[in-house]
Amino acid sequence: MNARELLDRFLLTDSRDVGCDDALAVLHVYVELVAQDPDAAAARYAGVAVHLAACGPCQDDFAGLLATLP
Amino acid sequence: MDRVAGPDEESAEWLRVLDPAAPDHDAGLARLHERLLAIARGELRRRHVLVSGPEQDDLAHQAAADAMLAILAKVATYRGESRFTTWAYRFVMLEVSHKLGRHYWRSAPEALPDEQWDRLPDRIGVDPHARAEARELAAVVRAAVAENLTEHQRTLFVEIVLDGVPLEAVCARDGTSRGAVYKAIFDARRKIRAALVANGYLPPREGESA
Lengths: 70, 210
Ligand SMILES: [Zn+2]
Description:
The complex is a heterodimer of chains A (about 70) and B (about 210). By secondary structure, chain A is an all-alpha fold. Chain A contains six helices and no strands. Chain B folds into two domains: about 10-105, Rna Polymerase Sigma Factor, Chain: A; about 115-200, Winged helix-like DNA-binding domain superfamily/Winged helix DNA-binding domain (Arc Repressor Mutant, subunit A, Orthogonal Bundle). Chain B is built from nine helices and no strands.
């Protein structure tokens, strides 16, 4: 990937991104669904999945919560 | 899978024992705290934070104690949509993030303002050997930032993207929410990209006008 393509990818925002507050509000429900059925989670919570892919702190919290599941 | 009505057995047991009227309420609180502390310790280890042993344990205790307060204050809002523990551990994760954000400033590296813009190519993964391309890229983004962002957005963009200050550290220092800072950076990225599409540096996406 050249410099412009990397920049484009870095700057590109997704309008489906729900933001931190909405993502965190359902994180406990989303994380259990991901563990059970990742496709269903991505379909039902597309905006949350998009947000977690773009937001480092929320991704950290998600990964930590996922690691606690039995 | 459809959610069953009411929480599972283990979750119901947590709810029972968290009721102040339960005869074993105090023992239940102690058990919950023990769990939260174990989760906080595990999470600090998982994040590979560069914090020494006693300090790391102190952070774990602080996170567990504050998560406990949040859980007790909000337990009435638990709707049984997940296991009780998943719902409760979310507060531990948030507190661990917050404590680490605050902790960052104890040993934050000195900012080097003169070299800030030289760091942009590296931040987005541009090959350091592509010097001319990298210099041009930094210059066009710098101009777009100066012309299109509000003062607030510009400050946060420089601090988080160029200086690499963790978003949570900015939140802890300024007393702002993660959502507000994320939104400012999100809007900054959108505005910079729009400016670079408008001046032809970046190609428009499908359905996007140049
Ligand atoms: Zn977020």
